[in-house]
Specification:
The protein is 28% helix and 28% strand. By secondary structure, the protein is an alpha/beta fold.
């Protein structure tokens, strides 16, 4: 009798699992394909294909806010715009360069402890802003799609909460006002919990996008697991690049150690090939981060431009996007030493000490370059992922630190105020490209 009950229980569990699996696989809204739309996604035998103006379109570009001509020149076709304040001129400039634009619609991030979406009046104001934005720009020729929120921390919950209800209302508003362009949202990495929750609670979303950096190598595994449960679905990589500061090695005082731009270019090559070698048929393209100048922990960590010079990383991107068999000629900046030691040696100095810094290059010394040296207070202790930029204040340069320059090296005096700092080197070549590296150090007053 006990054995029979046990077998019945197993059969019930298997039946419930099968039903649940079937339910998950058929949960997403079946969207009727209208090939008269300006932009649409079509499911094919090989997976999914994005179309714009009736022609297949593969996203190949960057996330950023400037240098649109430079992006087009290296075979880019798309740029993601985060800030809608200057959207009108940006869309026009993109059109003149032959670029398509993914427009972010900023909305507050969900926070369980402080749920801004619980205020009905705030929600109505947000809905009105989104409706106005979409109605105004929905017919612009450069528009590719709308991206509703960046890294929203979509919660895994059993029942819809105030955030999810508002999020779904916003999707419906965009679809109603502009049926000709898809609606997307962006997740930080490939979070299986967030993806599952979105598919369950917001099935009307057209596609997802992922910000991936050091976790590029595992994103395929996570996407495959979600596809197994819910069936294949289209997506694109909305931010990718070299290691972020959250993925980097730290000094003893927990300052992230930034790689040289040459090392970053090597990672760019490896990770682009990982992404494009993924033949799941669901990836609609990629956007490298960051196309412009941006201070995020340092002013060089993600910035691909500096005073109108282009990072040598862009050479690597051009080679990849144009499928060139010729290896790009990088500046080849290997590393920086301060008094013969590197960042991993945890450099701690006394105030007003004389120090010697030098750069090492893969091909030896290079006479066709110029080098600029700077020292800044370090901002490693600040939170770099705040919702607003209020805390992202660019530190002021410590002026008067350098007393001598000689080719690939410089002599400097450490600051007299105790605290964390970084010494930066910018290497510029004759063709308008730059390489960069920096070394964190700490000034400690033992008196």
């Amino acid at each position: 009798m006990k054995r029979q009950l046990f077998l019945i229980m197993i059969m019930l569990v298997l039946a419930m699992s099968a039903f649940g699996f079937y339910f998950l696989r058929h949960l997403r809204v079946e969207k009727k394909m209208d090939e008269t739309k300006t932009v649409y996604i079509k499911q094919t035998e090989g997976g999914f294909q994005l179309f714009k103006n009736g022609k297949p379109f593969y996203i190949r570009g960057a996330s950023g806010n400037s240098h649109l001509k430079d992006l087009a020149l290296i075979n880019g076709n798309t740029i993601r715009l985060y800030d809608t304040v200057s959207i009108s001129g940006f869309l026009d400039d993109a059109e003149s360069c032959g670029l398509s634009v993914i427009v972010d619609i900023p909305i507050p991030k969900y926070n369980q402890k402080y749920d801004s979406y619980s205020n009905e009046n705030d929600n109505l104001i947000l809905e009105g802003k989104v409706r106005t934005l979409v109605k105004k720009y929905k017919d612009h020729p450069s528009l590719l799609m709308w991206n509703l929120g960046n890294e929203l921390f979509y919660p895994l919950v059993f029942r819809k909460n105030s955030f999810i209800n508002t999020f779904n209302i916003l999707i419906d508003i965009i679809h109603k006002e502009d049926p000709n362009h898809p609606v997307c949202t962006t997740l930080a990495g490939v979070s299986r919990k967030s993806i599952a929750s979105i598919y369950i609670h917001s099935p009307q979303i057209d596609l997802l996008s992922f910000n991936v950096f050091g976790n590029t190598k595992i994103f395929k595994k996570n996407v495959d697991q979600i596809s197994f449960l819910f069936g294949p679905a289209p997506y694109y990589i909305s931010e990718w690049g070299s290691d972020g500061m959250w993925e980097s090695k730290l000094t003893s005082w927990r300052a992230p150690i930034e790689q040289t731009s040459t090392k970053k270019a090597e990672q760019i090559n490896t990770r682009y090939n990982i992404i494009t070698d993924n033949k799941d048929g669901a990836c609609l393209g990629t956007l490298v981060f960051f196309w412009g100048e941006k201070h995020e922990l340092t002013n060089t960590w993600f910035s691909l431009f500096n005073n109108n010079y282009k990072s040598e990383i862009i050479k690597e991107l051009e080679s990849l996007w144009k499928k060139s068999n010729i290896k790009p000629g990088l500046i080849g900046l290997d590393y920086m030493l301060v008094d013969g030691k590197g960042a991993a040696d945890n450099l701690v100095f006394a105030p007003n000490e004389l120090k010697f810094s030098e750069l090492k290059f893969a091909g030896g010394e290079n006479d066709s370059i110029k080098i600029k040296w700077e020292i800044y207070p370090d901002t490693w202790y600040q939170t770099w992922y705040e919702e607003t930029n209020k805390r992202r204040i660019n530190p002021k340069e410590v002026e008067g630190s350098f007393i001598n320059y000689n080719r690939n090296n410089a002599t400097f005096i450490t600051p007299d105020i105790e605290g964390p700092y970084r010494i930066f080197a910018y290497v510029y070549d004759e063709k308008g490209y730059f390489a960069t590296t920096n070394t964190p150090f700490y000034v400690l007053n033992n008196k």
